[in-house]
Amino acid sequence: MTRRTKASLLLFAGVVLSFIFTTTIASADCYRDCMDVSGCWNAEPGVNVSYCSDTQARCSSACLDQGPSGRGKIYGAIAYSKENGAYGYSHGWTNQEKAEKIALTNCSKHGPGCKSVVWFYNSCGAVVSDGKYVTWGQADSAQIAMKQALDKCNRHFFRGKCEKVVSHCSG
Predict the structure, then answer these.
(1) Whole-model pTM above 0.85?
(2) Are 34 and 62 in contact (CB under 8 A)?
(3) Domain boundaries, the chain
(4) Phi then psi dihedrals of residue 116, to 5 deg
(5) Within a 10 A sphere around the Cβ of 24, how many other Cβ atoms?
(6) Burial 83-95 (b: 16+ CB within 10 A, else e)
(7) How many CB atoms lie under 10 A from the CB of residue 34?
(8) Which residue has the higher pLDDT, 64 or 20?
(9) Do 93 and 76 form a contact (C-beta atoms < 8 A)?
């Protein structure tokens, strides 16, 4: 291999590595910058939690092509216990299994009997219960996911006894 060929290969490798590094940094910045502009990145106490949950979903979608998994998917999950009403959630994970595991861990800190109820990516999930049955919703916003869950619960179980448990977004 000639000296010129080696230099060309090294230059090409440098350009490729630079592109990969820059793209990775840009994807992290896209989500952080989107959340920061909305005031939700390091939200102070008193910031509207529902607004920030919806903002997480919007930022996830806006940065979809640059997501941390390389496939553009940012996962979240919600776990719930019918035994005692404990719940836990997770967000910002690059795979479904990790999101569900963290949600279960967070739920288990508040009581036994936790089960993963819903997982989602680049969107939001919600859980509703009437004390005996549990339903869930999944949509682009926390409000729509909650409406879906409430509608399912009221349609299939005890109308009027269904109560909101939690909603959360993946971003």
Answers:
(1) no
(2) yes
(3) 1-171
(4) -70, 125
(5) 13
(6) eeebbbbbbbbee
(7) 20
(8) 64
(9) yes
